[in-house]
Task: structure prediction
Amino acid sequence: QVQLVESGGGLVQPGGSLRLSCAAPGFAFSGYTMGWYRQAPGKERELVTFITQTGRNTNSADSVKGRFIISRDNVKNTVSLQMNSLRPEGTAVYFCHAVTYWGQGIQVVVSS
Result:
């Protein structure tokens, strides 16, 4: 059973930063593209960003380009999302994703 476990969410003021992490113990992590999705209240789940197997290539939604950075550590089997200059519209549940597997989601609230 593959488990993706997110951590690092919480409440942050607009303009602030948060770093999310996703751990995948026992998963053949390095062989797969990893992604972060988010689902805001009343909206569909959307792709935020992804990173390819070696970390050489990434891509992000236009709404977060230049502010969010995805990275991975294939030794530690973790993928991280550094979120800077957060906006209130960034309030959502964030999900780690690989292949057909999803994490349980972690709440991020951007509010003053």
User: Anything to note?
Assistant: The longest strand covers residues 92-98.
